[in-house]
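Pasting as-is:
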Amino acid sequence: MGLKYREQENALPDNAAHRPLDNVYIVGCSGFIYTAASIVSEETRPPSAALIVSAGAAPFRITVKGKALSTRAAVIPPFLARGLGAHEVPLVCFHITPGSPRYAGFRALAPGGVALLERDCFQELDASLEALYQGRLEPALAPAIYEQALSVPFRHLTPQARLDPREPLIRELLERRRDLTLTDLARELGTSYFWASRLMSDVFGMSLRDYKSWQKLQRVFHLLHSKRSITEIAHAAGFTDSAHLSRTYQRWFGQPPSYSRNRNNVRVMRCG
C-alpha cells in the first residue's frame, strides 16, 4: 500500500514547533489510534483493549501489580490496571473500544495480563507506523492500517478464552438501543436478570452501567474539538456536569479532557 502524506497545513503551531504533537486518528466506532513521543502514566484502567507498538528502537515499560515488563510490542486487555513508562519512546497505540467487533477477541488474547509480542511481527508496517507517528498519514488510509495492525497478534498469539456466540447480538442491542436496561436485555436474550448481568461481565468485562459510560465518552470524543465548552459537552453527552465528565475521563484515560482538546497538545483526525 502506497502511503499518502498530509500537506503542510497540518504543521505544528508556532508555539509547539519544538516538539511533536500527540496524534489521534478516530476510526469510526471501532476504536482509535493514539501516537505520542513520550508517555509516562501512573496506574490507569482504560475500558479499551490496546495494541501498543514502539515506533522506534527503544522498548517501553508496562507495570502490572508492581512487576515491570520491558517490550517493544504488547497486547493489553481492557480494564487491566497498569502504568506505562515510555519516556522519549515514540509509541503508536491502537485502541480497541467496547463498540468494536474485535473487542472480545482481544480480551481473549490476554485475559488478566499482558501478552508480549516480538517487534519484528510488525516489520511490514514500519513505514505506516512512522507516518502515523509523524501525523502525516492521510486519514482515509488509517482504518485499513488499523485493521492490518490488529490482525497481527492473532497470527502469533493463541486466544486464552472462548468467545461467547451471543456477543454479536448483545453488541447490536447495546448500539441500537441506548436506553437498554438489564431487564430489557434479559427479555431479548430469554434469560434472567441475573444471567443478563453475568453475560455483560463475561462478554465485555464490565457492567451495563460502565458500558453506558463508555457510550457517553464516545459522544465526548466527537464533541471535544468543537467550539462547545466542557460543560456543554458534558451535558450533551449525558454527564451530570463537567466535573463528572472530567473524573470519568481522567480515571479511564489518565489525562483530563482539557489536555485532549488542546490543539497545542493533540492533533485529531477523523477517518471516514
